[in-house]
Specification:
Helix content is about 65%, strand content about 5%. With about 425 residues, it is mainly α. It folds into 3 domains: about 5-170, no CATH class; about 195-325, Alpha-Beta Plaits, CATH 3.30.70; about 330-415, PucR C-terminal helix-turn-helix domain (Arc Repressor Mutant, subunit A, Orthogonal Bundle).
């Protein structure tokens, strides 16, 4: 025999007891006699069984349900019939009683193993069975009309109640997903253990492995749903998954997918439109969510330092803020400047380090630099081109010149401390 959830059995027994008390009291609604109500009571089990049989014959997916789930549906139908009869028995009762009975009888995880569309199909089949069998139990045409009208109202209330139940479940899942997403973003910022972070992300459907880029800035408003909508709608336009959360006073967005040079500006620009006023800083793109803490660390460091560059673009990469970050005391930025600029120049031949140092000290005047080094100006031009090729920074560009100048100073300080 199919097993039934104990909670549902207890609830059904309570409803049947209330139904019997109402009938014993001789109450009736809209002219239904006590004898008719008794016939309805005796037929309740057969109605539920007939409904289940009809579902099995009409719906292939219902036949594939496990026995315990089919038993739960049987109890729901029995509770629905019992509530319907209680409503008919009480002159002042409202169809609300039926809805409350449905909610009490339905298992809490109903929405997990059956969709709203499937639930509506079951309700429709059960109502069809009721419409076929219940009118036959009426004593005359007046009672038949009362039963027919009651069935219609009964079906409407059950359908609305099912929709309400699923909406509540969806809302609860959404709230849980939002909390889980916030935990993931917080873990990215704090650099949590890789296993726990990936486990939580997998629960939200985040593909593994997938590249990740962290963007930080001001939230567009203090309303969390509005923040979610602003960012998610823009991420959908570029077909990218996102994880986001407000961390303190900052909005942190983890953007999924590789951002290559050809589309970087467009993708990051669209996502940054979901932020509020103020600068938006994007960290480096890393290979997976497990490494996203490095992108978040650089992005947050850049957000603290970007105030020193009022003309910074929006969004700006954290790697473009290396001099400001180094001046703000970020050891990671100092290390990158040494590794990307100072060491390559120091290890190169041809006097590149001395040339770029002299060129920056004379304010970028080529002829003066050449006189200082006792070389021809064309030699200086050649060496500056080599510097640009080696480091990626052109000494003739004002912004690149600042990066080179800060990198040289940071490098010499690191050399004095014996760090290289």
């Amino acid at each position: 025999m199919e097993s039934c959830p104990p909670r549902s059995i207890a609830g059904t027994h309570a409803i049947l007891a209330a139904m019997g008390e109402a009938i014993e009291a001789g109450q009736a609604r809209n002219g239904l006699s006590v004898q008719t109500l008794r016939r309805l009571e005796y037929a309740s089990g057969g109605l539920a069984t007939a409904s289940i049989a009809s579902m099995q014959s009409v719906l292939p997916w219902f036949r594939r349900l496990p026995a315990d789930q089919r038993a739960s549906i049987l109890l729901i139908i029995q509770a629905g019939v019992a509530n319907f009869i209680v409503w008919l028995s009480e002159s002042e009762a409202a169809p609300r009683v039926t809805a409350e009975g449905f909610l009490r009888a339905a298992p809490k995880d109903l929405s997990r193993w059956m969709s709203l569309r499937q639930t509506v199909e079951l309700v429709r089949i059960a109502i069809d069975v009721f419409e076929q069998q219940l009118p036959e139990l009426a004593a005359d045409d007046d009672e038949r009309a009362v039963l027919t009208e009651g069935i219609l109202r009964f079906g409407r209330e059950i359908a609305f109640t099912a929709a309400t139940s699923y909406a509540a479940a969806a809302e609860a899942r959404g709230a849980w997903d939002a909390r889980l997403e916030s935990l993931i973003v917080d873990g990215v910022v704090r650099g949590d253990a890789e296993e726990s972070l990936l486990s939580r992300a997998s629960a939200l459907g985040w593909d593994q492995p997938v590249a990740a880029t962290v963007l930080v800035g001001n939230p567009p408003s203090t309303d969390p749903p509005a923040v979610l909508y602003e960012v998610r709608s823009r991420a959908a336009r570029v077909s990218r998954p996102v994880l986001l959360g407000v961390h303190g006073s900052r909005l942190v967005v983890v953007l999924g997918g590789m951002v290559d040079a050809t589309e970087e500006r467009d993708v990051l620009l669209k996502i940054s439109e979901g932020f509020g006023d103020g600068p938006v800083v994007a960290g480096p793109t890393v290979e997976s969510l497990a490494d996203a803490h490095r992108s978040a660390e650089d992005a947050l460091s850049g957000l603290r330092a970007v105030v020193a560059w009022p003309a910074a673009p929006r969004p700006v990469r954290s790697t473009d803020l290396l001099p400001e970050r180094a001046l703000a005391g970020d050891p990671g930025a100092e290390r990158q400047l040494v590794e990307q600029v100072m060491l390559p120049l120091a290890e190169s031949s041809g006097g590149l380090l001395e040339t770029v140092q002299a060129y920056l000290e004379v304010g970028g005047v080529l002829e003066t630099c050449a006189k200082t080094l006792f070389v021809h100006p064309n030699t200086v031009r050649y060496r500056l081109r080599r510097v640009a090729e080696l480091t990626g920074y052109n000494p003739a560009d004002p912004r690149d010149a600042l990066v080179l100048q800060v990198a040289l100073k940071v490098g010499r300080l690191a050399q004095a401390r014996g760090l290289w």
